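fwd from M.: "can u put these together and see what the complex looks like"

so here's what she sent:
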Amino acid sequence: MITEELSHKIREKTGVNVRECYQCGKCTAGCPVAEWMDLRPSVVMHLLQSGNAEEEEQILRSKTIWLCLTCETCYSRCPMEIDIPKVMDYLRVRSLTEGKVNRESRRIVAFHKAFLNTIKRNGRLHEMGLIIDYKMRSWNLFQDITIAPEMFAKGKLHILPEQIKGKKQYARLFKKQVKNT
Amino acid sequence: MKIGFYPGCSLTGSSREYNESLLSISKVAGIELCEVHDWNCCGATAAHNLNKELSISLPARNLALAENDGIEELVVPCAACYNRLVMTQHELNENKDMKKRISEKLQLPLEKGLRILNVLQFLEKYFVPQLDQLVKKSLGFDVACYYGCLLVRPQKVLHAERFEDPMTMDVIMQKIGATPVDWSFKTECCGAGFSVSKTEVVGELSGKIVRDAVNRGAKALVVACPMCHSNLDMRRSAIDSFLKKKVDIPVIYITQAIALAMGLTPRQAGIQRHFVPVNLPVNS
């Protein structure tokens, strides 16, 4: 597949025209996490315009799409008003559904999955449940072992989750939406 | 005066003091906040990053419930929830098919365009006009007002004024006696949802914010977002290790600053819940 099609697909799915990018680099200059990225935002834009199937694969398997914090700085400064965060949303969902999540980014995805799993169950966030779920997924067992007791002492952690009442209606929102959580 | 209130999950847990201070000052000002009945999590970054439909349908349930409660104006103090709710309202207006589908799943109408206020808009509208009567004390110190990302961006949807150099918080802080410093990190990202999964990134991004605030002479950082607060306050050890020194500047919510200026006790403002101790001069 040539990326000509990919840029069209992005436009069709998100309404964003990546072909308008003229590589000024302002997105990369203002991106708070650019230094940790394997592909800088402006490089992603360039690859989306001119790349081939191999480059599409490179983007879907990149750290970049998971490092994007959706701070929206790039979008607010882009002279062509290209909604780069919206493109990142599209790329993340594809990377996840096609099983192409970057190996080093799996902890980030594990955290998001643990979060969704917690709110799916209770309707509201239960921080303690989230942390336990995340630790099980990421095998990051000893992280933050000192911060939790202090949070608890300051009244910032619930032992038991808060539950919403309209569970039946709420559950319909999750139907056929999240797999592997 | 009755206004709808969506607290969001953080305000019931890790940022309880934001909730406590907001409710304390509203009570004194005679503003009744009506919590949205049976509200759910907005989905936060997780839903937004993993599933487009959920990132809209979870906030949409809250909008529908608020509408069902007869709420016309909704205050959303958490900047992250505020952002998700406003973005959802925007998406639903742009995409009528999605609106219909979600409304059917919820079996609730999503018809009325409810006005969503972030905490700064709420304070400006309901507190600033009566601030002279409410304020009993003066905060005699320099502050760095930190807005973060979610109150100002994306500019095209939120229509925040001066999105690179917002001033609403600075103006309020000035009115209650504090001196806002001129600084460069007002709208830089704190590292947001990476608090747990990429703590070192938070240490660096939040570290740069804290460092600039200290270098400009601020004695406190003032925030309006639970995520920013927890990164700047609870992640201080990651910040200190990035800066290679211990920094003790406290981080307070704008509602706590107002509570102190209104003469409420530090406990009513929830000051004791912070990781970085708060000892700020308040003049009578």
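replying to her w this: The CA atoms of residues 183 and 215 of chain B lie 9 Å apart.
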